[in-house]
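REVIEWER CHECKLIST
Item 1: Sequence provided? yes
Item 2: Single chain? yes
Item 3: Sequence as submitted:
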Amino acid sequence: MNFLISAGGQLFVLRRPPEGPIPPGANDMAREFRILSHLHPVFPLVPRAHLFCSDPQVIGAPFQLMEYRPGLVVGAKITSDTISNWNRPEPIGQHLGGEVIRVLNSLHQVDVRACGLEDLGRPAGFLTRTLRGWSKRAALSWKDSPNTLLPALLDWLQTNLPPETDGATLIHNDFKLDNIILDPATLRPRTLIDWDMGTLGDPLYDLAVLLSYWPESGDPAVMHALRQMPTAGHGFASRAEAADLYVALSGRDLGNFVFFRVLATLRIAVVFQQLYQRNCLTENKDPRAAGFNQLALDLLAFGMQIARGRYF
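Item 4: Structure as written out by the authors:
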């Protein structure tokens, strides 16, 4: 949860976890404050961290204060004003998609030793640990409503787990368009936010997470129902083209990328199932979350289609 506050004549963002139970590893304000504090001097696209308070008695949860950078956030749709004000020759989606991939590549080039984040995570065994973690969360999320899709997807992932590499970088762990605040006039990135799950790991996982939010016009309905990014139109690149741009910029090999894509799709399916369960337990229910359980199942099915090569 983010709040704009004023102190000493200056605006800040106060950031704290949401109300209710928090999934393991999510909304870690101490972790985010450490990342921002160390990363800002070498990667100024991230906001400056000002203060962290671990005492939940102050406002009911740990919180931090960070630099406020105003700008435009593009989510599921691009506003008509933004489209009408776009006056460059390339399609607006081509520009935005390229900027997103360039920011991701720049992030993965950060020297973690130079900024004191070399001990942020445990890169050895990252893929094995990530698969195990999301498998456990999936089992808990569907323990009261078993289905045949989840065991099939988990079995495929376990069978196709690639060997670990030594190319770990700093990764965002939830990298997507609406975590980049844009200059409203130029649509160039002003800041990259939401660092509470940042860690050291395989950069291809970051790319796969981004593409798990990236619908195309010919995708099944579930990818459009996500309502996360407007990439099905406006001249955005396809997922394969976006991955090719990342390869061209980074020089990395996508050899086992299907595994990463399937794992990232499992991840987002679990997230939506967790949101559905959380909504069921809250007093003030969000009607938008009522169908998230079916959305999560449809994502599991889409994950199997990716595994079988039907979609990139």
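Item 5: Key structural point noted by reviewer: Residues 2-67 form one domain.
Item 6: Recommendation: ____
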